[in-house]
Each structure stands twice: as structure tokens, then as C-alpha cells.
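The following record pairs a protein chain with its ligand, coenzyme A.
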Amino acid sequence: MSAVARRTDQQAYEVELSPMRRRHLRSVLRIEALVYPRPWSMTLFLQEIARRRDRAYLVAKVDAEVVGYGGAMTVGSEAHITTIAVDPPYQGQKIGTRLMIGLIEASIERGGRTVSLEVRKSNTPAQRMYEKFGFHPVGIRKGYYIETGEDAIVMWADNVDTDTYAEILEARRAELR
Ligand SMILES: CC(C)(COP(=O)(O)OP(=O)(O)OC[C@H]1O[C@@H](n2cnc3c(N)ncnc32)[C@H](O)[C@@H]1OP(=O)(O)O)[C@@H](O)C(=O)NCCC(=O)NCCS
């Protein structure tokens, strides 16, 4: 049975988050090619996951199969979500939410107090998810995406190390139960 057929039957399944390793990259690159017009290369992922002190890269797995991944970098008190993606058959099932929780928690552990990201102006599903994590637009990068010339919206979440923000994370965790 294919992954698509298996996942459209609404059966409950366990999602496990773990650090991204070299052995996951074949699956990561497969998803990357499906969801991004300008996919990252194997070399770039290898460079990123090697930087364990200031980077946090996670994969989400179902039955040992990688179904999503994301990454964050932290410089001083500023964290940045570098990428996040979910395999299309698994989208809309809170796997992106799980990854965001993991990435923000990892950013806080590394000293992050603000978290930023860029998102395509047309990517409203992702923007809705980020808003649910307290991100708000702070600016536009004109023509940021070279392949299409599309603008990026820069979004920020402030004070992620506070009790107020902990409540946002708890509300998102509650949605998973
Ligand atoms: C963006 C992405 C990572 C979200 O992951 P996901 O697992 O599909 O998202 P979730 O199921 O956790 O949804 C979280 C919230 O996102 C928003 N959302 C997700 N899919 C949506 C859709 N198709 N339309 C509108 N809002 C949507 C909703 O607000 C949702 O909350 P809700 O379930 O209470 O309505 C995923 O859709 C993806 O990989 N997209 C392609 C790659 C991409 O765009 N990455 C982001 C680049 S900045």
C-alpha cells in the first residue's frame, strides 16, 4: 500500500521528532524537490547539520519514514527558521506544528529570544501557521526568491523565552493531543 493511500484513511499514527542525520538526507531531498522550486543541495544540508552548536535540524518520522523536517540557526539571542517542510500527503495533519514547537524549543535552549523567518508572499498556509506561533510581519524583502522574483515577508516572534510565549507553545502542544 502506498504512503498516500495509507495516510488518507485517517488512521491514527505516531509522529516522532529526532535530530536530522546524514542517513535522513535522501528522504529530505525527495521532499525538498517536491515542495520547493529551488531545493537545497545535499552539500548545504550536510554543512548545516554539522554545525550542532548553533543549528538545530529535526526530522519528523512516521514508522521510521521521514515525512517532514525543519531547521533553525541561533546567533546570540536571535534565532532564524531556515527551512520547514512536510511531505505533501502528510500536510495539514499538524506535523508542521510539531516541527515548529521543536525548532522554537531548540532555539530557546540555545539562547534565542526572538525568532525570525522569511515566507513567500503567496504562501498563506505557512503564514497562518506562523501567526499561530505568535509571528507577525515586520517587513518585505523585494524579489527575495530569485527563481520567481516573488517578495518575501519577514516575520518575527518576540520574547519567546517568556512565560507569555510559553502559553502559546502550550496551546499549540494541546492541539496535538
Ligand atoms: C507550511 C507547512 C510546513 C505546514 O505544515 P503542515 O503540517 O501542513 O501544517 P499543520 O497541519 O501543522 O497546520 C498548522 C496551521 O497552518 C495553517 N495551515 C496549514 N495548512 C493550511 C492550508 N492548506 N490552508 C490554510 N492554512 C493552513 C493553519 O493555520 C493550521 O492550523 P489549523 O490546523 O488550526 O487550521 C507545509 O504545508 C509545507 O511543507 N508546505 C510546503 C513547504 C513550505 O511552504 N514551507 C514553508 C516555507 S516558509
